[in-house]
Each structure stands twice: as structure tokens, then as C-alpha cells.
Amino acid sequence: MADIGIGGVFVPALLIWAVIALLVSLLLRRLLAAFGFYRFVWHRALFDLALTVILLGGTVEVASRVFGP
What we know:
With 69 residues, the protein is mainly alpha-helical. It has one domain. Helices cover 67% and strands 12% of the residues. It has 2 helices and 2 strands. Strands 1-2 form a two-stranded antiparallel sheet. Helix 1 (13-34) packs across helix 2. The longest helix has 24 residues, at 44-67. The radius of gyration is 15 Å and the shape is elongated.
């Protein structure tokens, strides 16, 4: 992965993808809470962490297909 220049500052690409995954995760967590999905989840914090990691993997995969060679 390459660095991305934002205003003359080079930022690691993984940081950008992690921020995007975190924002999507926050939105998805609110939707899951609104629909009452968390009553079926044993450990909410662990589920939220796993959800964020899965979304990060998906974000990196999509970014590599769109911006890759």
C-alpha cells in the first residue's frame, strides 16, 4: 500500500481505510441497536470489534480493486 498525500502530508493508506471502516461500523452499530439485534449477541463489545475488523478487510479489498494496478 502506498501513502496518500493530504494537504502535503503523507498519511498511510491503511489509516484512511480504517477511518472509513470505523465510520461505516458506527452507522451499522446504530442500525443494529435500533432494530434490537444486540439482544441476540452474547458479547456486544467483541461483536463490535469483529464487525469493525470485517469492515476494514472489506474496505481494503474494495480499495485494492478500485485503486490497484
